[in-house]
Prior knowledge:
Layout: H1 9-12, E1 24-33, H2 37-48, E2 53-56, E3 72-73, H3 81-114, E4 121-129, H4 135-148, E5 153-155, E6 166-175, H5 178-187, E7 196-197, E8 202-206, E9 211-215, E10 218-230, H6 240-243, E11 244-255, E12 264-267, E13 273-278, E14 285-294, H7 302-315, E15 325-334, E16 340-343, E17 351-355, H8 361-377, H9 387-390, H10 397-420, E18 435-440, E19 443-449, E20 455-459, E21 470-472, E22 477-479, E23 486-487, E24 493-495, H11 505-508
Helix pairs in contact: 2-5, 2-8, 3-4, 3-8
This protein binds flavin-adenine dinucleotide.
The site of flavin-adenine dinucleotide (FAD) has 39 residues, from helix 2, strand 10, strand 11, strand 15 and helix 8.
Amino acid sequence: MSEKNHESYWSRTASRTESRPYSGDSKCDVAIVGGGLTGVTTALLLARRGVNGVLLEANTLGSGTSGYTTAKITLQHGLKYSNLLDSAGLENTLAYVKACTLGLELTESLSREIAPDCGFERVSSHVYTRDPSRLQRFDDEAAALEKLHVPYRFSDSCGLPFPVARDMAIDDQAQFHPLRYLNALADSIPSDRFPIYERSRVIEVTPGSPCILRTERGTLRAKTVVLATNYPLIDMPGLYFVRLHREQSYLMSVPAGDYELDGMYISDEEPPHSARMYHDPEGDRLILGGFGHRSGRGGDTATRYDDIYRWLRLAFHDVTAEPDASWMAQDAMPADHVPCIGPMSEETPHIYVATGYAKWGMTTSAAAALLISSMITGERHPILEARALYRPSRFTPGASAREVVVQGAHVTGSFAEGVLTGTTQKPEDVAPGEGAVLRSDGELMAVSRSPSGTLSICGAHCTHMKCPVAWNPSERTWDCPCHGSRFEPDGTVKEGPAVRPLPGFDEAGEH
Ligand SMILES: Cc1cc2nc3c(=O)[nH]c(=O)nc-3n(C[C@H](O)[C@H](O)[C@H](O)COP(=O)(O)OP(=O)(O)OC[C@H]3O[C@@H](n4cnc5c(N)ncnc54)[C@H](O)[C@@H]3O)c2cc1C
C-alpha cells in the first residue's frame, strides 16, 4: 500500500484563516522567525508580558514538524535518562526533567484556557521492547528514574495487542491535537501587539543593533530575534551545521472504530515504532508510525508507509478500516542529545535559537517558549534552572565528539558522492512521477517528471551548503542528506535551512 496524499490527519482536521504576507519596512522589539509550536508559544508568552513583536512564517502556521508530529506530550523521551545522567550529570538531568514538566504544565493550562477543542487528555506514556536482550537498558533507566525521583511502573505486559518483554510506564503524561492547539494559541495573540505574517520566508538575518531581517517583500528591524525554524537558517557563529542533523519519520492515521488503546507507546528498537489514539467526536483514530531514518537517506521512502501498514495489519487485528492519512516529518537531532535553547552564540546575544528537540518537541517547545520569553523579559521563572543545560554555546566533547565527527563525515561523504554519482541517463528517460540526479557536462541536474508528464530540471546542489540533493519518491521532493533542506520538483524551498530555491539548470553551472 503506497499512499500518495501526504497531508497529515492534524492538518486535514484543523483550520484557521491565513494571515497576510509581510511587506514594507518596519521595526519591533522581538522578531520571531517560524510559526511552529516554538514560535507561536513564544509569541503568545511575550505578548502577554507586554512585548511588541512580529512573527514571520515561511509557509503557514504549523506547516512544519508541529503539524506533522505524533503529539505525545511527555517527559519520557524514550529511554533517555540513563545516558543523560552519564553525559550531563545529575543537576543538568534534573533540570531536563523539570523543564519537561513545566512544558507539560504550560501546555495543559493553555489547552484548558484557550484551546478546549484540542483534545488534551492525560494518559500514561510507555516505552516497551519485544526483545529480551534489551532488558538491561530498562533496568538502567529504572535506576536513573529513581535517582531523579520520577515515578514509573514496570510490567511484562501492556495495553498493546501483542506480547512484550518489558514495558516501562510513566503515568499522568498527555496527548492532544497539535494544530487545533497551535491555531487557538495563534488566534489569541493580539494582532496589534504581535502581528503574525504567513508566506513570509526570512531570507537573511544580519546581526546588530538592531538586527535586520529580510523577506522577499520587506525588511524588519528588531532589537531581538528568535529563530524558531526547527533548524537554524544561519549556521555561524555556533557551527550548527556540524552539531545538528535531521531525521525523518512516518505516520499513519486509521479510523479506530470501537478499538481503544490505553496510553501512548514507543518501542525501544531501531528504528522505533510509535502508537497512540486520538479521541474525536467524529471518530477516534489510531495513529501509528516511526520507521525513521536520516533525512535524504531513506531510499524508496514509500516502503516506510508499507512497513507501517504491515504492522497495522499484523498487530492490530481489531482495527479493520483502511488508513485515512499518512505523512512524514523531520526533526533536528543534536550531537550531544540535548536541545539548544538560548542565545545563538556569545557573539550574538540578541539572536536566540531553539532547535535540536530530537523528536521530543511537545514538552520541549513549551519549555523553550518559557525559557526564551523569560530571558528576553528578564522575569524570574523556575525554567531558568534549565538555562545552563540548554545553553547553545556549551561545549560537551564527551557527549558530542563522536556525533560531530559522524556528521562531518556525512557532509564530506555527501560532497564526495556528488562528485562520483549522477547517472548518465537523459531527462527523457525519467518516467512520470520519478526523479533522478543526472550528470551533464560534469554538472549535476535534479530532473523530475510530474505524474502528468511535466518535466522539471534544476541544479542538484542544495543552496544551504551545496550538498547534492536526493529524490524522495513518495513525497516527490528533493531532500538534502546533509541538513534536511527540502525542495519542490521545480526547486522551490519546502523546508529550510535553505532559504533560496534550487537554481534553474542554466544557473547551476555557476556553482
Ligand atoms: C514524525 C515525528 C513525530 C514526532 N512526535 C513527537 C511526539 O510524539 N512528541 C514530541 O514531544 N515530539 C514529537 N516530535 C517532535 C516535534 O514534533 C518537534 O520537535 C516540534 O514540532 C518542533 O516544533 P518547532 O516549532 O520547533 O518546529 P516546526 O514545527 O518545524 O516549525 C518551524 C517553522 O519555521 C518555519 N520556517 C523555517 N524556515 C523559515 C524561514 N527562513 N523564515 C520563516 N519561517 C521559517 C517553518 O515553515 C515552520 O513552520 C516528532 C517529530 C517527528 C518528525
